[in-house]
Amino acid sequence: MTTRPGRAAIFEQFAADGIEYMFGNPGTVEQGFLDAGGASDIEYLLSLHEGVAVGMADGYARATQRPGLVQLHSGVGLGNGIGMLYQAKRGGSPLVVVVGEAGVKYDAMDGQMAVDLVGMAEPVTKWATRVVDPSSVLRVLRRAVKIAMTPPRGPVVVVLPADVLDEPNSEPAVPTSVPDTRVVPEPALVAEAATTLLAGRNRLILMGDGVATSGAQRELTAVAEALGAKVWGVNSSEFNFDATHRLFGGQLGHMFGETSARVVGEADSVLIVGTYVFPEVFPALENPFKAGAKIVHVDLDAYEIAKNFPVDLGLVADPKLTLAALNAEINRQRPGLAPSTPIAVSSTRPVFPEPPLEQDSVLDRFVRRLAGRAPEDLVVFDEALTASPPLAKYLPPRQAGRFFQTRGGSLGVGIPGALGIKLASPELPVVAFTGDGGSMYTIQALWTAARYGIGAKFVICDNRRYHLLDQNIEQYWAEQGITPHEFPAAFDLSTPELGFTGLAAAMGVPGRRVEKLYEVDTAVEAMLNHDGPYLIDLVID
């Protein structure tokens, strides 16, 4: 049996699991295993902030449906990455985060950087642990991969003390065994679900990212057509349902429960699949569903089923297999209900006429030109928030793996997330839209893009303020009976002006500022034709 230091063995384990990249920011307590990693084929991608490292790994994991490996430096590094870990947890991203530590032998000393790393990580992870036995390093890492990849997926943290990794390790490095959770309910329960949903006349479907994770988009479409049910996105940040389909209702809001209540309040039967309800910041405390409405919830996360409101039938099952079985049962019970053939959906983007010049805007024209000139396999990362409507109009989600949004309420995911997606699919064009405020959370990611030649493109929707906060406080004023007045100065980003093209250039990424309609066409061409990362500072207000 081969014996080598644990610091070398961990890279054998990562290689056995097919991991290609480690996203991180180094520190002294990780120097031993980072030095050993230089002899492996795993590429270390250096970021200048831990939020960038976690954000890149998150994008990579979402695009590949495989573990994203992150290295963080003790308490300070983990602390800097916690915001991004939170959004990864809320979004179900399978991240494996290794956090360095000085050593077990120093536990009694309360030295510099000493902190309960597991305690720090637990609120924002699916699982967190610390390795204390040199003979169980690889065993724990395999357990971490298994837990991260088993639905409901999520980030895990493994604390690796330096002295444990310096000890001899004779564990074999073998691929992690990830259990198969492709389960379907017994036929009687599928029949009950179909009967329950067919009982209503006004039918509704609420869907989320569990659909994409399961690859259940076709099956969801078939069920929606069989039921004639409108489909609404709830915590839906990937391609789950064709946004141009006649049954697509739109996205529920993420801020106020009243938005969801208005949509679901008249439904007689509701199918919830691949999501939790409801994910607003200020959710409705009273049940928003109609009295007597029949609710069926399908998800692989048992915790989310009936978490806030009762359901008539909860099925802990794989969405793809369950929806296929449900569609067959619906058509067996009501053979004439569904259309004889599925509704044809064009693979091309919708085309819109040019508006009169005086009605056009820089943002609308930019997205419209991008939609007209970019390849059909364009990947969009939408973190534009208040500037998102033109993206939904001109670049609607239509294919798996071609659309991603921020989730979990975090800002700063767009730029590093797009880098991770581009690494996962280097042959695809990738464009991230973000806001001026959100971009500044992780603007250091541009340096990483330039260092490694990661050719994603970035569009900063620059309105010189946190405009989402403007919208939210207007609703707050209305609810509280407060007379509208000047927005708080804390929402303003105009003074001093953020020079995004200068920032990008300083980190090795070229770009241009676009303020006028006549500048849009050449800017889109320049961005699409540039070989490497490129930034557009799009002044939209």
TrEMBL record:
UniProt superkingdom: Bacteria
Keywords: Lyase, Thiamine pyrophosphate
Name recorded for this polypeptide: Benzoylformate decarboxylase
Record-linked PANTHER family: ACETOLACTATE SYNTHASE CATALYTIC SUBUNIT, MITOCHONDRIAL, THIAMINE PYROPHOSPHATE ENZYMES
Organism encoding this protein: Saccharothrix violaceirubra
GO molecular function: acetolactate synthase activity; benzoylformate decarboxylase activity; flavin adenine dinucleotide binding; magnesium ion binding; thiamine pyrophosphate binding
Gene Ontology cellular component list: acetolactate synthase complex
Domain named Thiamine pyrophosphate enzyme central: residues: 190-326
Annotated Thiamine pyrophosphate enzyme TPP-binding domain residues: 392-537
Biological process (GO), any one: L-valine biosynthetic process
Cofactors that this protein relies on: thiamine diphosphate
Species classification: Bacteria, Bacillati, Actinomycetota, Actinomycetes, Pseudonocardiales
Family to which this protein belongs: Belongs to the TPP enzyme family.
TM spans (from-to): none
